[in-house]
Recover the amino acids of this structure.
């Protein structure tokens, strides 16, 4: 389990394993050798399960034991509610110890991954910041006038276009050119969209 947790947070987390119980209504035949195993596709993170199978017994059986894997470590926790669309600052959160495995979304332990980002939805106070809670602030919105640049072997052309959707730096956006043609390009800085020929 420690190796699984180490992959999640570079070994900085304190693991805790809580074993559940088999259903008491189960009537399992006696077994001389029980083998534990991790079912294919199972991730030992949060609520999970471990397989137990009888290898030497009158009746061979296979059951699943519920387990909860917790991974305690420091994370940024909101000190006050944040409205959807608000830009996060370092003053919005404090460091606290949380269970990283409580949810599947990755914890944003590094401030560079959330400071200056937009809240994807309304975030309550006391919530640990996770990857699905923030998104980049758009460089421009639909209807913005943009420079659309293309270059080829020995030439560069720049024309004006209108954004059809919000644009986030480094991502694709659709732009309508003056003649009505719609092109897709990559958002660059200074409200420029780069289109490959």
């Amino acid at each position: 389990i420690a190796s699984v947790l180490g992959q999640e947070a570079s070994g900085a987390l304190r693991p805790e394993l809580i074993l559940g119980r088999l259903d008491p209504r189960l009537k399992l035949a006696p077994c001389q050798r029980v083998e534990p195993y991790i079912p294919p596709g199972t991730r030992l993170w949060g609520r999970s399960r471990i397989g137990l199978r009888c290898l030497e017994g009158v009746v061979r059986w296979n059951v699943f034991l519920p387990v909860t894997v917790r991974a305690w470590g420091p994370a940024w926790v909101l000190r006050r509610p944040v409205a959807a669309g608000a830009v996060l600052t370092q003053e919005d959160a404090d460091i606290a110890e949380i269970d990283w495995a409580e949810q599947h979304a990755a914890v944003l332990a590094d401030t560079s991954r959330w400071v200056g980002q937009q809240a994807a939805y309304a975030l309550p106070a006391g919530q640990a910041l996770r990857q699905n809670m923030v998104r980049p602030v758009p460089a421009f919105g639909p209807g913005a006038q943009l420079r659309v640049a293309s270059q080829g072997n020995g030439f560069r052309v720049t024309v004006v276009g209108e954004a059809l959707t919000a644009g986030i730096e480094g991502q694709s956006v659709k732009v309508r050119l003056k003649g009505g043609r719609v092109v897709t390009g990559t958002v660059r800085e200074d409200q420029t969209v780069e289109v490959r020929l």
About this structure: The two ends are 50 Å apart (CA to CA). The CA atoms of residues 78 and 92 lie 6 Å apart.
